[in-house]
């Protein structure tokens, strides 16, 4: 199973959560950034519908596969 770690950091005069090198919007307090990160992390764990997805790879080839709605990542918020 995939793991996702949201990290709460000081950013742009306030606080934000980030995933890898991507930052959220800026929040006025650390507590509000933590609360937002926890909401986003919880949403990531919610199961969805099983669907067939199509995507193109870097070589221009198209692929089709089944994305199970129950295949959700483990999430964590690091403060």
Based on the model shown, name its key terms.
6 strands; about 20% helix; alpha+beta; two-stranded antiparallel sheet; about 80 residues; 4-stranded mixed sheet
Notes on the structure:
With 79 residues, the chain is an alpha+beta fold. The chain has one domain (3-78). It contains 1 helix and 6 strands. A 4-stranded mixed beta sheet has the order 3-2-1-6, covered by helices on one side. The protein has a two-stranded antiparallel sheet with strand order 4-5. It is elongated and about 45 Å long.
Structure described in brief:
The protein has one helix at residues 30-44, and strands at 3-11, 14-19, 22-23, 51-56, 62-67, 74-78.
The number of helices is 1
Mean pLDDT: 96
C-alpha termini separation: 23 Å
Largest sheet: 4 strands, mixed
What topology emerges from the helices and strands here?
Elements: E1 3-11, E2 14-19, E3 22-23, H1 30-44, E4 51-56, E5 62-67, E6 74-78
Parallel strand pairs: 1-6
Antiparallel strand pairs: 1-2, 2-3, 4-5
């Amino acid at each position: 199973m995939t793991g996702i770690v949201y990290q709460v950091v000081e950013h742009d005069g306030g606080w934000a959560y980030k995933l890898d090198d991507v930052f959220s919007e800026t929040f006025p307090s650390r507590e509000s950034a933590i609360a937002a990160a926890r909401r986003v992390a919880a949403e990531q764990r919610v199961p969805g519908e099983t669907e067939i997805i199509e995507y193109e790879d870097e070589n221009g080839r198209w692929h089709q596969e089944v994305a199970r709605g129950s295949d959700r990542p483990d999430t964590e918020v690091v403060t």
